Amino acid sequence: MAERSLDERIRRLEDRAAIQELGILYGFVMDERDGDGIREIFCEDATLRSQDGVFKANGIEEIVETYLGRFAALGPTNHFSHGHVVILDDTDPDRATGLIASHAEVSRNGVAMQVALRYKDTYRRVDGRWRFADRLMSYMYYLPFTELSEGLGDRNSVRAYGDHRPSDWPEVLYAETGNAWLAPYYTSRG
C-alpha cells in the first residue's frame, strides 16, 4: 500500500473521530427520546435490524416509528459506549463500517434491567456528515438487575420480551460460524 499523505492521514483521523462521536451521540438521542435526533443520525434510506429478528426497519420513517414504539415500553434509559472500532473504506471515502461494544441500563415495563449490546454498523457521509446507513443490534444479555448473578451465564439470557430467549453472542460459543467475522477488524488500522 502506498504511504498516505499528511492531509489524507488527518482526514482519516477526523473521519474516525466523527464516526466514533456518532456512536456516542446515538446513546444520548435514545436516552432523550429525540425523534428529530434520530432523523439527524440515520440516512434517509438506512436500515435498522437486530440479530434476533425483532427489529427490521427500512428507511428513516420506519426507523423513527420503530424507536417510538420501543420508547413506549421503556422508562428511563442510560446508554454507555465502551469501545468503537472503525474501518474506513479505502475504495469509498464516504463509507465506513464499525463495531461498538456497549451496555444500557433501562426500565422496561417497570422492571430495572441491564443490557449488554453490540452494534455492527455501516456508516455513510451525507452532506458532509457521517450517519448510520445500517445498524445491526445484538445482545449478550438483557436481564433484570435481580437476575444478573444467575442469568449472565445462561444461554437464554435475553428476558426483554417476558420470556427467556437465547443470547446472540459470544458467537463462538453459540454458532457454527465462530468468530471469523472479526477478521477484518484485526487488519484495519490504516
Secondary structure layout:
Blueprint: H1 6-31, H2 35-41, E1 42-50, E2 56-58, H3 60-73, E3 74-88, E4 95-108, E5 111-126, E6 129-144, H4 148-151, H5 171-174, H6 183-186
Parallel strand pairs: 1-6
Antiparallel strand pairs: 1-2, 3-4, 4-5, 5-6
Helix pairs in contact: 1-2
Domain SnoaL-like: 11-135
InterPro entries: NTF2-like_dom_sf (IPR032710), SnoaL-like (IPR037401)
Protein name: Nuclear transport factor 2 family protein
3D structure, described in words:
- With 190 residues, the protein is an alpha+beta fold.
- It has a single domain (6-186), classed as Nuclear Transport Factor 2, Chain: A (Roll), CATH 3.10.450.50.
- The chain contains 6 helices and 6 strands, in the order H-H-E-E-H-E-E-E-E-H-H-H.
- The chain has helices at residues 6-31, 35-41, 60-73, 148-151, 171-174, 183-186; strands spanning 42-50, 56-58, 74-88, 95-108, 111-126, 129-144.
- A 6-stranded mixed β-sheet has the order 2-1-6-5-4-3.
- A hairpin with a 6-residue loop joins strand 3 (74-88) and strand 4.
- Helix 1 (6-31) packs antiparallel against helix 2.
- The longest helix has 26 residues, at 6-31.
- The radius of gyration is 17 Å and the shape is globular.
- The mean pLDDT is 90.
Strand order of the largest sheet: 2-1-6-5-4-3
How much of the sequence lies in strands comes to 35-45%
Q: Give the uncertain stretches in residue-range form.
A: none
Taking all residues together, what is the mean pLDDT?
90
The assigned structural class equals alpha+beta
Question: Helical content, roughly?
Answer: 25-40%
CATH fold descriptor: Nuclear Transport Factor 2, Chain: A
Largest β-sheet summary: 6 strands, mixed
- The overall strand count is 6
Radius of gyration: 17 Å
N/C terminus separation: 10 Å
C-alpha geometry: globular
**Which CATH top level class fits?**
Alpha Beta
Element order: H for helix, E for strand:
HHEEHEEEEHHH
- How many domain units? 1
**Which CATH architecture is right?**
Roll
Compute the number of helices: 6
Protein name: Nuclear transport factor 2 family protein
Organism: Candidatus Phosphoribacter hodrii
Domain SnoaL-like: 11-135
Pfam families: SnoaL_4
